[in-house]
Specification:
Elements (H helix, E strand, L loop, with lengths): L3 E7 L3 E10 L3 E11 L3 E2 L2 E2 L2 H19 L5 E6 L4 E11 L6 H11 L8 E13 L4 E2 L9 E12 H13 L3 E7 H9 L2 H4 L3 E6 L4 E7 L2 E8 L3 H12 L3 H10 L12 E5 L5 E5 H30 L4 E5 L9 H9 L4 E2 L13 H12 L23
Parallel strand pairs: 1-6, 6-11, 12-17, 17-18
Antiparallel strand pairs: 1-2, 2-3, 4-5, 7-10, 8-9, 8-10, 12-13, 13-14, 15-16
């Protein structure tokens, strides 16, 4: 029997389903992958919850046809819109060398904090340990010290989101095996280990939102969500130029940052909804797009300045997501605004090279490696169940 995994991703503008098989020495073989647009996620909720069910049904049926299998179990990504991450530090005394009980004691101390009861704790993840020798350790076991200070990263997920997904998939006869925090999976599988060990930042620019993660080792020290993304650019073009959203999106994707990349052309061309090829002034498009992307980059840069001041070092920046990655020259424009050059994330699988599929790739790797398991309980009722919340 094939060892397959199925990932469901609720993006801010698309629902996607990917089924893959991992083969020895060959890596992932994608058996089916579908993305379908929907009204999506804005801020911390669905735009239209009723629509979610029908689109989810469509993507699953499409992938089943491609793969020739019946999907019964899935792993579901938890989007950044429904996540909060908290880092906590504590210190404990150690007798001799660090043992597992010392680490457990430190972790138990960091758990003593209050959080919004609309959220559920889904995982805890050690970030770093500081010992008497003045060194920082990712794994302190069997190292001699008298005191150990450590930082633990906690991931909290919206109970409403978890409950909604369980309800939706149950109606389709599908069981959720695990929930996977998307930013953590992306951090582990899109950012090289050697970069994470010296601190890195991952910027995931989606359609409606941008997620920014400060990564150290195998943990996210800090996470923030910005309610701005590729859709903000499309919306600006549509509003200023009085165009439909589809035409605005086409123009955005054709755009190249920097006048020299456009070879001095005065117009850009795109088909209208009626199928007619029309021309649009390049200079106006440039003003709209550059202004919005500059605004987003400056907003992201505020985070870097605070983090660099606190930690006293520069970070490597990695860029992912479909928000602006389809636009040529985005890294050069980013550097011209912030003074920092981001690196676009890359994946080895040929079928998942597109930036908007990188999150699904990361979650597939996460699921196969069984980094940790976030299993839902069997009986729950959530927003779709007359407002009753589940206990996780």
């Amino acid at each position: 029997m094939k060892d397959t995994k199925t990932i469901i991703e609720f993006g801010t503008s698309k629902i996607s389903c990917t089924i893959a098989e991992r083969k020895p020495r060959m890596g992932l073989e994608v058996l089916g992958c579908t993305q379908i647009n929907y009204q999506g996620i804005k801020k911390q909720g669905w735009v239209d919850k009723d629509e979610v069910y029908y689109v989810l049904e469509q993507v699953i049926e499409s992938v089943e046809r491609q793969a020739g299998v019946r999907i019964k179990n899935v792993e579901v990504g938890i989007p950044g819109s429904f996540l909060k991450m908290v880092s906590r530090t504590a210190q404990v005394d150690v007798k001799g060398k660090v043992a597992e009980r010392d680490v457990d004691h430190l972790i138990s101390r960091t758990r003593r904090f209050e959080y919004d009861r609309d959220y559920s704790m889904v995982c805890e993840w050690p970030a770093w340990f500081y010992l008497d020798d003045g060194n920082v350790y990712l794994d302190p076991l069997n190292v001699a010290t008298r005191k150990m200070r450590g930082c633990i990263s906690y991931t909290l997920a919206s109970r409403a989101f978890l409950n909604d997904v369980i309800k939706l998939t149950r109606h389709l006869g599908i069981r959720v095996d695990n929930f996977i925090p998307e930013p953590l999976a992306e951090a582990l599988y899109l950012v090289p280990e050697e970069k994470r060990d010296s601190i890195a930042v991952l910027v995931d620019i989606g359609y409606y939102t941008t997620n920014v993660s400060l990564i150290y080792g195998d943990a996210i020290l800090y996470f923030t969500r910005i309610d701005m993304g590729g859709g903000s650019i499309t919306s600006d073009i549509s509003y200023v130029m009085k165009l439909d959203t589809e035409t605005a999106e086409l123009l955005k994707r054709q755009y190249s940052f920097g006048l020299e990349e456009n070879n001095g052309a005065a117009y850009m061309y795109a088909k209208s909804p009626e199928g007619r090829l029309k021309k649009y002034p390049y200079d106006l498009l440039k003003q709209i797009i550059d202004a919005r992307v500059e605004h987003l980059i400056l907003y992201i840069s505020r985070f870097f300045r605070k983090a660099e001041t606190k930690l006293g070092k520069n970070f490597d920046i990695f860029l992912t997501g479909g928000g602006i990655s389809f636009m040529r020259g985005e890294t050069s424009f980013y550097r011209s605004i912030s003074g920092k050059t981001p690196v676009n994330t890359k994946v080895s699988n040929a079928k998942m090279q597109s930036p908007d599929l990188h999150a699904a790739y990361a979650m597939l790797q996460f699921a196969y490696d069984k980094v940790f398991v976030i299993k839902p309980q069997q009986q729950r009722r959530g927003i779709f169940g007359k407002g009753k919340e589940a206990k996780f």
